[in-house]
Structure of ADP-dependent (S)-NAD(P)H-hydrate dehydratase:
Amino acid sequence: MRSVYDSTQVRAAEARLKEFTAPGELMQRAAYGLANECLNELHSRRGGVYGARAALLVGPGGNGGDALYSGVWLLRRGIAVHALLVGVKSYPGAREAFVRAGGTVGAISDADAATAVSRADLVIDGIAGLGSSRSVELPDSVAEAIATTDALVCAVDLPSGVNGDTGQAYDGAIHADMTATFGAWKPAQVLAPARRLCGDVRFVDIGLGPHLTDPRIDVLDYADIAAIWPGPSYDSHKYSTGVVGVIAGSAQYPGAAVMCVGGAIRSKPGMVRYVGAPDAIERIVAAWPAAVGATSIDDAGRTNAWVIGPGMGTDDAARSVVRSSLSLDVPVIYDADALTILSGDVDRLRERQAPTVLTPHSGEFARLFGEVGDDPVESVKAATRRTGCVVLLKGPSTIVAAPGGRVLVNETGSSKLATAGTGDVLSGIIGAALAAGLPAQIAAAAGAYVHGALADQHDGPLIAPDLIDELPAFMARLQA
Ligand SMILES: NC(=O)C1=CN([C@@H]2O[C@H](COP(=O)(O)OP(=O)(O)OC[C@H]3O[C@@H](n4cnc5c(N)ncnc54)[C@H](OP(=O)(O)O)[C@@H]3O)[C@@H](O)[C@H]2O)[C@@H](O)CC1
Ligand SMILES: Nc1ncnc2c1ncn2[C@@H]1O[C@H](COP(=O)(O)OP(=O)(O)O)[C@@H](O)[C@H]1O
Ligand SMILES: [K+]
């Protein structure tokens, strides 16, 4: 598990740590760590660092100070370093130290600023970090040189022009190959769209650890999933490993049911029950002979969790199923059409006594709760407060919040998943995790992890059924 802290938490931790350290010490730790990361990467790219050129983009605050002090270390390794000041101010003392060490200084508006960037092997973006909250306005020629350079572009703490706390990217935000983050992971390093602009994030320990508590976000990793994903024990039987009920599909969208049941069944619960019309049951059993059919929830028999919604349509019959399912006393995940049906009735979700998971994409989220906006984590938290449900917002970074709980963000998967039906597989996987007894938020986040990892593991172009085909190999590895 990786913990992520927002700028207020990081600044508070820095303030506490400063009580125990000499003035300027933290910036020196940051600058040394930053220089090391750049030197290592530069070394592996060009086989050595001596004689290389670096350009520093230097903003007026602490971020620019880090860049200038890292320049001192680069100079000591035989790199020619030129600093370009963005604005008139620079961090007190840093510019002087940089010049004393042999660095040269110009302004971002200089006629040769773009040339300095294009000739560099290393560009360090120290315009703004934690204090970045607006667009980056560089001369066009410099912006163009940064965007097109083959040099290593390394962001100091955060790429300039991203909001560190929300993951929002403003106009002109720097696209880095690598980001050296100081003392803590920041939300923008795990949230879209900023996450992509960070490139490879390198953690530079400056000693904040003991002063950081109560992370804003946690990111589950493979070891977490291996530890929590349920597997059978020697005395398991089909009812002890969880029975999933699925209500999905319709004459218009029969495939959604096949994929949802497939996602559930290949995640290895004890049993999957499919509830639908007789012809729909026939189709499902043809695709998945191990699935058990029933024509109503009442006739389905013992079930530990329900997945309701993929491709079920929004006609009166579907509406009536969704409404009556609100009183089910086992966990339910509502997805797709069930979310559309519930969007007229969001506050009724509060009636649910058992755990409930909602899995909207941004369009469904907007229908339920209003537009996601610039701060998706806050929007998802507000949705959990309103409904009392676990809310999983799908997208390039999937966010899972629970009432009163910590926010989980998933990092597996990619835009390969932007293809019809992948969401149906996801809800099936989460259904299996819920039926096995995982707490709702963990089931949702672990399901998202597995789903994304299936896409990552798949070679070549992906369609939704490929995810189901990847499940056995993934589960085998997980349980080995
Ligand atoms: N605190 C500590 O102990 C440690 C902190 N450390 C380092 O300090 C960083 C935080 O420093 P910080 O607070 O000075 O803020 P910082 O990120 O430099 O930005 C604020 C300045 O930038 C300016 N600015 C903003 N956006 C801009 C833009 N697009 N284009 C141009 N300018 C822009 C903004 O100007 P304004 O918007 O107000 O006009 C303001 O002047 C942190 O990320 C880490 O790198 C490390 O050394 C470890 C120890
Ligand atoms: N650009 C992207 N990057 C990563 N994951 C994505 C991206 N686009 C979509 N996904 C994932 O693909 C799935 C799509 O689900 P959904 O929109 O419900 O599709 P459908 O309804 O067709 O099944 C979600 O798990 C989502 O997180
Ligand atoms: K930066």
